[in-house]
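>> received
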Amino acid sequence: MERKTYITKTGEEFSYLASDIKKGSRNFVFFHATGFNAETYKILFNKIKIHFDNEINIYAIDQRGHGMTNAKSEPDNLKSWDIFVDDGKEFIESIEGEVICSGHSMGSIIAAKLASLNPSKVSHLFMIEPVLYGPLESLKFRIKSFLRINRELMIAEGAAKRRSHFPSIDAAVSSYTGRGAFTTWSSEWIQNYLEGGTKNIESGIELSCTPAWEAATFRSSSMDTWKYLKKIKMNVRVVYGSKGSTFSQQARESLFSLGENWRGKYYDEATHFLPMEFTDNVIDDLESYLVND
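>> returned
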């Protein structure tokens, strides 16, 4: 994967990874989870390249406030995920040909909204552990958000308190291994997350996605996804885990009742970090989806 820079129409710089050797081939565009970055998923992308024998172009952008992207990211001004959707829309439109939109967690919601807004551009949608709750759950969240009751959202509070400075990447890997969100990650996945999501400072390294921005991203989750999902007519695949999933039971029941174009794959032993835990299986599911669509 080669790191490249995309400059928006307003002059903002976005960093992304690309493997675009085959012109005219399928384009797989991936959006990462909150707090992560494109390089976090390097193992997944490299295995996709091998699995598809380099017959698929891969693009993965560092979203605003994440990774190596240099775009305005002021936590106090982040009110919804609309800015991430706008960024993603401009990015996919810069790619020649149709795209397969995919993403993990927040990234899968961005991908879904892009598929809804750009049906002539997006040919497929492959969602991994989406942040999706049932329509009634989502409505309650939006009301709380409007009333600013969700300012104390537990996951956001945890992100706001996250340690952001380390003497070295090795020290950070040691600190993360086997703990918290990284409990089920291999050291290589953690290493890639840190190499793509830290910058050098005088005392060592610091996270490029600041705790304040990560917390603001969690708090600003719009939970307005259903109005987009209902408009999607293409065949869609959703893969999800059983432990600590952000894809609630109510959401599953509502989503898979929208139509036969919505199909899911349940992983009994997986957590929210399904792509880190079952990388090869996820790729097999992606292939099956593309071949049988």
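>> The radius of gyration is 18 Å.
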